[in-house]
Design goal:
The complex is a heterotrimer of chains A (about 550), B (about 525) and C (about 290). With about 550 residues, chain A is mostly helical. Chain A contains 19 helices and 2 strands. With about 290 residues, chain C is α/β, with parallel strands linked by helices. In chain C, helix 2 crosses helix 3. The chains are: A mainly alpha (about 550), B alpha/beta (about 525), C alpha/beta (about 290). Chains in contact: A-B, A-C.
Chain lengths: ~550, ~525, ~290
């Protein structure tokens, strides 16, 4: 209890540098980054041996463990093949992350290009066209290379397969002839059979049985050869993979540059505006010299053109959602849900804590709804939200949200709200229970203080009860945010609200060769963001906790 | 082949040493990109953000214009209801759009191409439309989103607008003025079923068996399964999907009963010898591999995917079940169409052009734009499958087995054969199938089929859009069936050869062995 | 009639059939500005007594009256200083006092309040620690803060519940002196509970003994006639001080023996537990 006090006196007498060190360590402690403390201490040359040991334990060992995990993954992944695809290696995942980023970057370029004007636009167009001209021959080269490699591959495959095919054909004819011969023999034998004569009948049956077995065996042999052949055909040809990926790279860049050139050229906003303004000018001139019916028509045209110009000048590139944007939207969604949940959970939790009658009334609801999965809540949330917002284009709430800063651009729709509500419904229980506990377990001494001071209900609530319950409330909020983040991905996946969940679903639907790898990227992204959120909540929790008890890690 | 490979690697390295990006985005650009939307707005409130204000265009409009405009508005009260104007500078007719920022939904299948192409090739842009194209998780959500207004329009199964309008499933009045494509589906069975079929029919043992393959060879498999107290399970994508009807048609044509829908059995399994169930397209290969189903009917790229992964064999395409059958339509809600007639026209115009672009051929008749289309579709925000897989069917080839690659120039038809026209006869065919399998529970008179088709299919809008395109010189007069009454000629291009005439739905119903039959003249 | 009066007060806990009477027929008269020390053994119901005085515990029968008014509920006119400080841990030294001041003097202006609070902080020698949280303070500092908070309410009666029992001997002596100094500056009625005879003799005007519980009641009363200011260094040699201390101690030992005999003579085995006053802040400390 008395430690900080002692530390104060100590710092007063020691040097400034030491004081600085304690400040840093304290900040690290509040931020929950305790593993950095030994590094700081080492920098100040405090018990270097002990610090090195700690660094070894809390930094080096985790890094080594993670590296070992990645190495193990890299070794094991290629060995695990399924028909649905291969488990991506760390390198493939890294490439996938790169391609996700590239997609994002390129869409950003297109967006920028659409808005460019004047000299910058001309310069950029020049660069793009130059690069496009370079790409033309490269693409031809890549195409011809792919053809060559394909030819080489099919030659190789034929070479590998032909002995198998020969064997297959040979065996297949051999087997079918043998089968025919056997059947003919059996037929002959059958004619010799007479009614009765159990033994001969039984012998004949055994013959037929062995014939069936033989046939089945032969079929299996053929099947094995076929399977071998299939395996050869299915085998990846590394050269072909390389050639194709290079071809794809070039083709994709060409496509991107083509689109970029278009956005810098004819479909650029400024270019469009220039055309429209020129049209307006000529109409204006014509209008000045026109009269009667013609003047009316021209005037109407001018008005329409003005409207068109206004719209064009406000227009932006319709950018598709990229993963970074989706992460941002998911974060917004989880926070909206978290705030809705907290706004419900904290007041109810406080009431539960204050009144055991109310607690008794709420207990069945908490017990009943707490374990319900997001997958159940979401359709319900969708229906309820949909009921409130029959026409999203013209609803005041959607309009309001669209004009808010920070989240306005995200095209908030009922699916977003439903996802947020689902997050709220799944995550509010931890906060509610913790708040109730915090309020109910308030120190009687504190209540006595309130009684002596004759605090009114509100003062008592605001000045005594809630501050005293805050550490537990924040512990609950931290759990809630964690649950919310976990639930969100599932909710987005179901509601097809843009976000990380939608990204995963889209990747699953794509079924491309790198889809699996992209999903693995999401695993790390979701984990990292979740970790970050948790850290932030720990900091808050520490800031509100008034005693020395450290927040649980 | 070591020589060329080394050379190739060298060239590849050469390529990689080139700058991939035309130029590296400035730090500011990167920063802006990191901050998104609102954060961006905040940033631009600072002088730093304002420095790139050159993107703003100053509208240098003469001061007297406002006055003139005001005068013109006051005079316009006497104006007519002419909603279009022709701009003298180009032949392009710019419509007076009610709404210019649109959201269209699609399912990740190659036949969403017209919408994607219209966006990527700028056909929407040229109509003054700003279109966002959003992948939907399944057909049900897609339809719901069109109904609740979240989407302005969508890539739909032909059966969907009809089913929604007559109230099978979700009830809502959905219309279509544009058929997106013909054909494009395949029926795939698992390897073991294929093997059993091969045993039943020696002819199938060849690496390139003769097509069309009927379900005859499947029949003994079904029988033996039934004998063992099991039913063959097959997947299709939606109760009112083309896939459902095609799979049923294929099975029934060989005398296998796929089951009836009844009021109490909405899964459609009454009397079934083969049970069909709904599986979302992307789940098909995985579900087949897991053994939950033994076959499926789905669009591309999911049949080619089965071949590529070696988990199944496509036995037939729907081109063999019914040559040039209608597949997807572009659906919008009636309410939306009524509120945005000009926008609807502009959308249809752009889609017609996209269809035409997709079916562009050179002098030798080869499709010239399909590789580019496949490249575009393989982008992760569109279909997203590997280019190689999409390319096969899109460029007119189809792998039935790894060793059996066949040219199928009409596997996907986006414009030929007047296919983009919304034919009443197509609507009637779907209605007959719904009746045949019990999704429509009561018998209906022939007139009802015609009325319902006319409720959903809107050739008038199509023809108006097409006329504008002809006037603009973008589409040939001959590309459009101007004189039709909306019913295609009777055809018997079915796997079982039973002729279909949309003008006689009851007769058509009664010509099938399996399925509900109605009395003629029951009106 | 005395300023503060306990009249036939009975306090008990528990259900009807196994009820424990903590206080039985307690009578106490305290004059205005008198400093009374109530002395008793652990578990004799001292804390219940002070809790009853504060109004935190309502007597089963009998009355508590102050200045002629019967006490029915707690209030800031009876400043109680709890045994375990009862500081609000999330508030700083300043804010802990401010909470009380704001409530008791709502119309005080902001500047006045600032000055007023600072005066009390200075009074208890906490200057410089205004913005520290309770957990950053030592035990003595906390008790001082608790004292400052109680005094800042300007109570008519000051109720001190074993205020110094949790402190070490040196700090305790220091605080005793401080409390006396403050009391002498600004006299008011004080009732202090203690279990330390020296402390009682040193500080109080009168010592009242509480017989051991259960059914504790007030015993003999010893007036302390030593002159003030009392100097602890010379007091040890003061015969009057020695006599008083011996008298009180002996009396306390006697009544304890008596109680024990009484207890053993009874056939009924008493439960070996403390009465628990749920509303009292002291229940935890009593056990220690």
């Amino acid at each position: 209890m008395a430690r900080p006090h002692a530390f104060q006196t100590q710092s007063r007498v020691t040097t400034n540098g030491k004081f600085m060190k304690y400040k840093i360590i304290k900040a690290i402690d509040v931020a929950g980054l305790n593993f950095l403390a030994p590094v700081v201490r080492l920098c100040y040359r405090e018990e270097p041996k002990k610090q090195l040991e700690e660094i070894g334990r809390y930094i080096v060992i985790p890094v080594v463990a993670f590296t070992a995990f990645v190495a193990l993954w890299a070794v094991i992944a290629p060995r695990h093949k399924t028909k649905s695809g291969e488990v991506p290696t760390p390198f493939v995942v890294w490439d996938a992350a790169d391609s996700i980023w590239k997609f994002h970057d390129r869409e950003g370029d297109k967006e920028d290009a659409y808005g460019l004007s004047g000299k910058t636009r001309d310069e950029k167009l020049l660069i793009v066209e130059k690069r496009l001209a370079q790409l033309g021959p490269l693409e031809d080269l890549a195409d011809s290379q792919v053809k060559e490699v394909e030819k080489a591959r099919s030659k190789f495959v034929d070479k590998m397969v032909s002995p198998l095919l020969g064997e297959y054909d040979k065996l297949s004819t051999q087997f079918s002839e043998a089968k025919k011969a056997r059947e003919a023999g059996l037929q002959r034998d059958a004619e010799l059979l007479t009614s009765g004569d159990r033994d001969r009948k039984n012998a004949y049956l055994a013959e037929v049985r062995s014939h069936a077995e033989q046939t089945e065996e032969e079929r299996q042999t053929l099947k094995e050869i076929k399977a071998e052949e299939d395996a050869i055909r299915a085998d990846k040809y590394p050269d072909l993979v390389a050639a194709l990926s290079a071809q794809t790279k070039i083709a994709e860049e060409r496509q991107y540059l083509g689109k970029l050139a278009e956005h810098l050229g004819k479909s650029n906003r400024t270019a469009k505006l220039e055309g429209q303004i020129a049209q307006l000018r000529s109409d204006q001139v014509a209008f000045m010299s026109a009269a009667g019916e013609e003047a009316f028509a021209l005037a109407r045209r001018i008005v329409k053109q003005e409207e068109r110009i206004r719209k064009t000048s406000e227009s932006t590139y319709a950018k598709p959602w990229t993963l970074p944007m989706q992460i941002y939207r998911s974060l917004a969604c989880v926070f909206v849900g978290f705030f809705i949940g907290s706004a419900i959970a904290i007041p109810i939790g406080v009431l539960c804590g204050l009144s055991s009658t109310f607690m008794a009334a709420m207990t069945p609801f908490i017990a009943l709804f707490k374990p319900v999965s997001p997958i159940v809540w979401l359709p319900i949330a969708l229906i309820i939200v949909g009921g409130f917002i029959p026409d999203p284009d013209k609803h005041w709430l959607i309009d309001l949200l669209a004009n808010l800063p920070l989240i306005g651009w995200m095209k908030i729709n009922p699916a977003f709200i439903a996802s947020a509500v689902t997050v709220a419904l799944c995550s509010l229980w931890a906060t509610m229970v913790n708040t109730a506990l915090g309020v109910a377990s308030i120190d009687k001494d504190h209540i006595n203080v309130a009684r002596v001071l004759r605090l009114g209900f509100w003062d008592r609530l605001v000045k005594i009860v809630i501050p005293s319950a805050l550490p537990l409330i924040f512990a609950g909020l931290r759990i809630s945010l964690g649950v919310g983040w976990m639930v969100l991905v599932a909710a987005e996946l179901l509601s097809s609200s843009e976000g990380i969940g939608k990204f995963v679903w889209d990747q699953f639907n794509n079924g491309a060769s790198d889809s699996f790898a992209k999903m693995m990227v999401v695993v790390f992204v979701v984990g990292f963001v979740g970790l970050l959120l948790d850290r932030i909540m720990i900091v808050f929790q520490r800031l509100v906790s008034f005693d020395e008890a450290p927040a649980a890690m | 082949m070591d020589g060329p490979m080394r050379e190739w690697r060298l060239k590849q390295r050469l390529y990689q040493s080139e700058p991939i990006e035309p130029d590296t985005p400035s730090i500011q650009q990167r920063l802006r990109r990191m901050m998104y939307g609102g954060a961006l707005a905040l940033l631009s409130a600072f002088p730093l953000g304002c420095s790139d204000g050159d993107s703003e265009v100053s509208l240098d409009i003469p001061a007297d214009l406002g006055m003139e405009a005001a005068a013109a508005t006051s005079a316009s009260s006497a104006g007519g209801n002419e909603s279009t104007e022709s701009v003298t500078a180009s032949k392009k007719t710019l419509l007076d759009l009610e709404k210019d920022e649109l959201k269209f939904g699609f399912i990740k299948l190659t036949d969403c191409a017209p919408i994607v192409i219209a966006r990527e090739k700028g056909f929407f842009g040229e109509e003054g439309l700003q279109v966002e194209v959003i992948a939907q998780p399944n057909w049900k959500t897609l339809l719901d989103n069109v109904i609740n207004g979240e989407l302005d329009g969508a890539h739909m199964l032909s059966g969907q607008p009809i089913a929604a309008t007559i109230g099978f499933g979700t009830k809502a009045h959905i219309i279509t003025a544009f058929t997106m494509d013909l054909n494009g589906n395949g029926i795939t069975v698992s390897n073991s079923i294929w093997e059993q079929m091969q045993q039943n029919d020696e002819a199938l043992k060849s690496p390139t068996p003769k097509h069309p393959i009927s379900a005859e060879a499947l029949k003994p498999v079904v029988q033996s399964k039934l004998g063992a107290g099991e039913k063959l399970q097959m997947g299709m994508v939606f109760p009112v999907s083309t896939h459902n009807y095609e799979l049923r048609y294929w099975l029934a044509a060989s005398g296998i009963h796929p089951g009836f829908y009844t009021k109490s059995d909405i899964g459609g399994r009454t009397d079934a010898q083969v049970e069909l169930s709904v599986t979302p397209p992307p789940m098909m290969p995985a579900t087949l591999e897991a053994g939950n189903i033994q076959g499926y009917c789905v669009g591309e790229p999911w049949n080619q995917q089965a071949v590529a992964k070696g988990i199944g064999v496509p036995v037939t395409t729907n081109y063999d079940v019914w040559k040039n059958n209608p597949e997807k339509v572009f659906g919008v809600s009636k309410k939306w169409a009524d509120e945005n007639p000009n926008t609807h026209l502009a959308v249809v115009k752009a889609l017609i052009r996209a269809g035409k672009w997709l079916d562009e051929t050179d002098d030798s008749g080869a499709l010239v734009n399909r590789e580019e289309a496949a490249r575009i579709l393989s982008r992760p925000d569109y279909v997203g499958a590997d280019y190689d897989v999409i390319k096969n069917s899109m460029t007119g080839f189809f792998y039935f087995q790894k060793t059996d690659k066949r040219p199928m120039p009409d596997f996907n038809v986006f414009f030929k054969y007047h296919c983009t026209y919304p034919w009443y006869s197509d609507g009637v065919w779907f209605l007959t199938q719904m009746r045949r399998w019990g999704q429509i529970a009561e018998p209906k008179p022939a007139e009802w089929y015609d009325e319902m088709a006319k409720e959903v299919y809107k050739p008038a809008i199509y023809l108006k859009a097409a006329r504008m395109l002809v006037d603009e010189g973008l589409v040939d007069e001959s590309d459009i069936p101007w004189e039709t009454d909306g019913y295609k000629e009777a055809t018997s291009d079915f796997i079982d050869g039973i002729p279909y005439d949309g003008r006689d739905p009851i007769g058509y119903l009664n010509s099938h062995k399996i399925g509900n039959k109605d009395e003629t003249g029951s009106d | 009639m005395a300023w503060l009066e306990l009249n036939q007060v009975n306090v008990g806990f528990g259900p009807q059939d196994s009820r424990t009477e903590v206080l039985a027929d307690v009578n106490l008269q305290v004059e205005e500005n008198e400093f009374i020390a109530v002395i008793g053994f652990s578990g004799s119901g001292k804390s219940t007594l002070i809790s009853t005085l504060a109004g935190l515990t309502t007597p089963d029968s009998g009355t508590v009256s102050i200045g002629g008014t019967v006490v029915t509920e707690p209030g800031p006119d009876r400043g109680i200083m709890f045994q375990n400080y009862s500081l609000l841990p999330w508030l700083s030294v300043y804010s802990n006092i401010e909470l009380a001041v704001r409530q008791v003097f709502p119309e005080m202006s902001k500047a006045d309040r600032l000055e007023y609070i600072q005066r009390y902080i200075d009074m208890v020698n906490l200057t410089g620690a205004e913005w520290k949280k309770p957990h950053e303070l030592s035990g003595g500092m906390r008790q001082r803060l608790s004292l400052a908070r109680t005094l800042s309410m300007k109570p008519e009666v000051l109720l001190l519940d074993e205020p110094l029992s949790a402190l070490d001997a040196l700090t305790r002596a220091q605080l005793q002196d401080e409390i006396i100094r403050i009391w002498e500056d600004d006299r008011r009625t004080v009732v202090m509970i203690t279990n330390d005879v020296d402390e009682a003799v040193l500080m109080a005007d009168r010592i009242v003994a509480l017989t051991p519980g259960p059914e504790a009641t007030t015993g003999r009363s010893f007036p302390v006639t030593l002159d003030r200011p009392r100097d602890r260094t010379t007091l040890n040699f003061n015969p009057e001080f020695k006599r008083l201390r011996n008298d009180v101690t002996r009396y306390m030992m006697d009544i304890n023996e008596e109680a024990k005999e009484l207890r053993f003579s009874e056939s009924r085995q008493l439960p070996d537990c403390e009465p628990i006053d749920l509303s009292s802040p002291t229940n935890r400390m009593v056990a220690s």
